Model the fold of this input.
Amino acid sequence: MSLPLNHVQTIVSCIEHYVQTRPDERAYVFLEDGDSQELSLTYKELQTRAQQLATGLRSVDLKDQAILLLFPAGLDFVVAFFACLYAGAIAVPANLARNGHHYARLKQIIQDSNAKAVLTTESLKAVTMTGLSNAGINLESISVLAEVETASALIEDNLVATLNPNFPAFIQYTSGSTGNPKGVIVTHAQLIANERAIQVSADMPEFAVVGGWLPQFHDMGLIGAMLQPLAMGGCYIFMSPLHFIQSPLRWLRLLGKYKAVATAAPNFALEHCVKAAKAGSVEGIDLTALKTVFCGAEPVAQKTLSEFNEFFSVCNLHPDTVKPCYGLAEATLILSGGIADRAPRYLSVDREQLKLNQLHIVDEYSEHAKKVVCCGNAVKDHELIIVDPDTHHVLSDSSVGEIWAAGPSIAAGYWQNPRATLATFNGYTACGRGPFMRTGDMGFLREEGLFVTGRIKELMIIRGKNHYPHDIEETLINVLAENLSIQAAVFADEYGNAPGVAAFIELPRRGPKLDTTDLQELVGKLRSAVTQIHDLQLKDIFFLSFGGIPRTSSGKTQRLKCAEMYQNTLIDVDQRLVFSTRAARQAPAQLTPVSAMAV
Amino acid sequence: MNLPMQTPVVAQSVADVSAMIRQHLTQQLKGDHPDFNEEVHDNMSFDYIGLDSFSRVNMLTELAKHFGVKLEPTAAYDFVTVGSLAEFIWSEISGTPMDMKKALGI
Done:
């Protein structure tokens, strides 16, 4: 089947095509209340609004410029995103700011991307201006615009013709930290290449109905959910992420009601649905039409897959529907996954050997068994290889190494960051093949496909959201900086009831005397800052005396070692431990004021 | 979270609502965030407690069930302390308008 998607050069050409063939069909339906209140855009309406806004953006010289998009979930973001593309501007989607810390992070993104304008809704315009101004952004150097006043009634007539497929379509910020913001540049050509790969990977039909709730500024929500159906002349029906979290079965009801053939979600969403199904009723949910649930953005757990299949088989969920996949913003989105002709495959491997990057397949009931889920084969026109991260020798099948990728949707690099671009996007194998994009993830390949086993990059994924330890450490250090100079090490704890993040705080060599009450107060400040800035709750905080954070001889924080000490509780008996929330909760009766002076 | 709170209960005052929220939060924290062992009070912010958006919305879902009212999930961000959320939920239950400026700290 030859789809227009197979020969267009930009995604706006898909809109143009379907406006000709099915102008009055709905391209987007947003469920405002999460259940039944529909707001919709037909192809014609979308084209008109996006082109009117694009013309307005061009009239204020925003062609070729970066434009920050700050929108709540809904249709206005869709219009604004396509308006940027039609205008030949570079869209920079970002999460809405709710407090001063968030605006401070937006400031970093604005400065790094050199954004000349912020697009938002009319109702958020005033508060956005105040927030940006309070964060130290000079409002004379950046315009804050809303569609209603910017859109032009007359549409410039050569909008599509002047688009260059090799020009950036958008920048996806993966990290907004002060020192090292990294914006992944995705060109029109790379975007369309990834949409093609997604379509082929799940054999999605033209006019596909896709449903979802993922944040629209998130790569999986944007490329995998919001843009994919449009590229095939279909319809995306969605709700806000908060409505999903509030009542996860809404998502499955939506999929059933609109006969969606595909959706996308991280592992935690499937878990959330299983929990809800245990507590409530799944009556009336019919998933007969659903052919694909792309499951990615965080490691996929075999336990979750089998529970999800078990709980929703009564809703006619086919056991092959959930398709684990693998991808990252640096590859636009998807790299592997898709078609499964039987229930998701997994391997039981020795957990301890895997830590040494050795693959030992074991019986699934053995003591050290860890189930690793297969994320499918490389998507069409893309190549995955496994490489020794130090020697760059290509490893044979079933050897664990770094996952390297090449293909038409590998992103163009990091915005204005040649050093980071070179380090990530310019991998050459020992025998000189390349360039490959180095994913920083570890895994192995077998006939069935890719198995992801861990990562060498310092990234923590909590509920599908990426967190960088250095960002959170910076938050911790800054929040106390006025009164106390600390060091911090933050690491992911993947064991226990729920994955989470814990922190070691190292007190200064010569600091003030701190008793338990003081330290409890510091815990409150640290926890509060991390929640406000990163939307993340620290599982535990450990205060250590000077020198307590394990480091290499060159002074680099050993976060993996920290995690190990936390998990095997060695840290609890470490002589440098001054105070910990874990000790405080495990033995609250013994919480006598200790002489917690930093030695 | 399996709390024995499925049948909607009737609150008589904003103080009742606040007491219920505090009781509910204490239970939720025991399960989800055991490192938090302070007593929850009205002026405490959800940021201070360290509730991320997932936990906040879950809390709201449970409270909505508990009081038998419909609560938009964005309320978890509009009302940032236990006390202001209690006033909001009380206004929803009792049908009395609340002082939004006071609750939002404007």
